[in-house]
Amino acid sequence: MVLLIAVFGCTEDYDLNTNFSVPTELQQVAPVTIDVTSSETIELSWSGGGAEDGSQVIYAVLFDEAGGDFSNPLDTIYSDLGVEKTLTMTHSQLNAIARMSGITPETTGDLIWTVLASKGGVVLPSNLTGSITVTRGEGIDNFPEQLFLYGDVTENNGQGGLAFRKAEDGVFVIYTKIPVTGEVYFKSSTSGEAFSYYGLETGKLKEGDGTYPVDANANPYRITVDYNTLSVKKEVISDVRAIWGCNFNVIGNLAYVMNGQFKVDNAPIVFVQQDRPTTNPPGWLSWTEERYYFIAKIDGVDKCWGRKDGVSPERPTGNETLNFYSIGEFAWSQWDHLWKMSGSLDLKTATITIDTNINGLMVHQFSNVAPI
Length: 372
Fold this sequence. Notes:
The protein is mostly beta strands. It has 2 helices and 29 strands.
């Protein structure tokens, strides 16, 4: 009887309604003088159209150069939250599109834009086209795909370029020692034709032949070169240590050992338990604690170097990819961004290494494992 009711009791059909219409008006955008260092935003908006049943429609904005037909757009960006009738852009985003359109630094040109609407897999283009007049400021059009540090005061005494890690599009990072006060510069390649870049003392990134002043320091620097904001920043890295998350006890203090690596040898690893009083177990602890992360001082401020996607739910088994050990940087919060340590490391000593540039990642690894 229950089965019959389930089968025949409901006769009303619930069909997906994909009926919707496209925007009917694009709001005019005032001319924009681009400043990639600005925190201000540019808003594109439209009105009209929408779903017949009142549900949400997904919007995407297409950009093209003046005279284009959007068949091969310069860029496609979803609207705010994907469903709002606005797109909020940064100056850096707009600058990248202007650069792709052929508008060169310190010149003015036009971009065009339109809106695609979609629902339930059905996509409809608007027949409307908007225009944005943009004036680019000083800029760099020769964006490198890789970057290298040069100069007589580098940690390899100027014997060839030291590789940056590409942290994201247009952003390059290197951890390195500067043993002698002097100047460095950046190149897009270690051989053949290469573009050169440098930084002003103000932190502004420039293209061409020039140098960036750096003072000697007992601790390594993190140098970040950002082509999206035309900036160069150097920060001092110190007091790098691996700690247990439950009680903040230090597992090992990692020293900088050149080539972008921090390392500690023979670090004693003893999981925190109530029957191990030397591990300083918190009074509330009734289980084994093996969760850990790293803390580093960045220009004197403690930051968490931890797991990127939250907290490891289980101990690693040895089959994890290198990305499992990839390090992100966060404000320090006790129970966030922890890894669980492999059970095979309990009551062992190990070399703990942070490599800031391996396969495009910043990771940590355990090696030379031996019984305590």
